């Protein structure tokens, strides 16, 4: 947080957007409140930014059989803004962003993932037990496995994967994959969205 405060003014000089729509998806058990600084950063750079608006991220409940609420929100945002939406997802939110890009052709402009373990099995992290406890799902559930496999397939839109070798909870090799522009930063997993290097990397990815 001290680094963020020290770097905040300088980060305002990063490449700017021109009102393009961006939706930020939170990590496991987090809500839009956890990403307030990231959204403020991108708004300052000229993007039209919204949170996902679905409360805490409890996994596939947001995209499963209960109405595919996340997909509906992305489609509605694209319709309102008259342009496809860039998705920025932290951890589990990144997997959801990639699945949305697979299922909503023409509605997603690009995907930026932050510490998102989309390129490996669910049990290849140190958070799978927390995922089971908080989501009510099991990682050996065929539906969960199918969603992770879907998230790991190459996308048809520009994709940036921001990852860290010092993450501590998910390994770097499963946070990047085929067809991604991989950007390495030095960061822990917890509160990665407050890291100035990550905020810079997101801005550069959106402006590419």
Automatic annotation (TrEMBL):
Q: Which domain of life does this protein belong to?
A: Bacteria
Q: Does the keyword Protease apply?
A: no
| A single GO molecular function term of this UniProt record | hydrolase activity
Listed A to Z, the keywords are: Hydrolase
Gene3D superfamilies named among the record's database cross-references = alpha/beta hydrolase (3.40.50.1820)
Read off the InterPro entries from this record: AB_hydrolase_1 (IPR000073), AB_hydrolase_fold (IPR029058)
Question: Which residue range or ranges hold the AB hydrolase-1 domain?
Answer: 83-132
Name the record gives this protein: Alpha/beta hydrolase
**What is the organism field in this record?**
Sphingomonas spermidinifaciens
């Amino acid at each position: 947080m001290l680094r963020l405060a020290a770097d905040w003014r300088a980060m305002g000089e990063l490449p700017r957007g021109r009102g393009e729509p961006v939706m930020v998806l939170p990590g496991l058990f987090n809500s839009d409140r956890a990403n307030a600084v990231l959204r403020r950063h991108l708004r300052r750079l000229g993007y039209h930014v919204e949170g996902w608006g679905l409360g805490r991220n409890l996994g596939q409940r947001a995209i499963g059989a209960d109405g595919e609420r996340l997909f509906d929100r992305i489609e509605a945002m694209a319709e309102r803004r008259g342009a496809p939406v860039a998705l920025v997802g932290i951890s589990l939110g990144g997997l959801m962003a990639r699945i949305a890009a697979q299922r909503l052709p023409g509605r997603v402009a690009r995907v930026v993932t932050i510490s998102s373990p989309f390129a490996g099995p669910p049990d290849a992290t140190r958070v799978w037990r927390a995922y089971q406890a908080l989501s009510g799902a099991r990682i050996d559930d065929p539906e969960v496995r199918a969603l992770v496999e879907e998230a790991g397939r190459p996308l048809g839109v520009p994709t940036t994967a921001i990852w860290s070798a010092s993450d501590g909870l998910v390994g770097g090799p499963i946070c990047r994959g085929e067809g991604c522009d991989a950007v390495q930063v030095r960061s822990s997993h917890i509160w990665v969205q407050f890291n100035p290097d990550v905020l810079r990397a997101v801005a550069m990815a959106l402006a590419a």
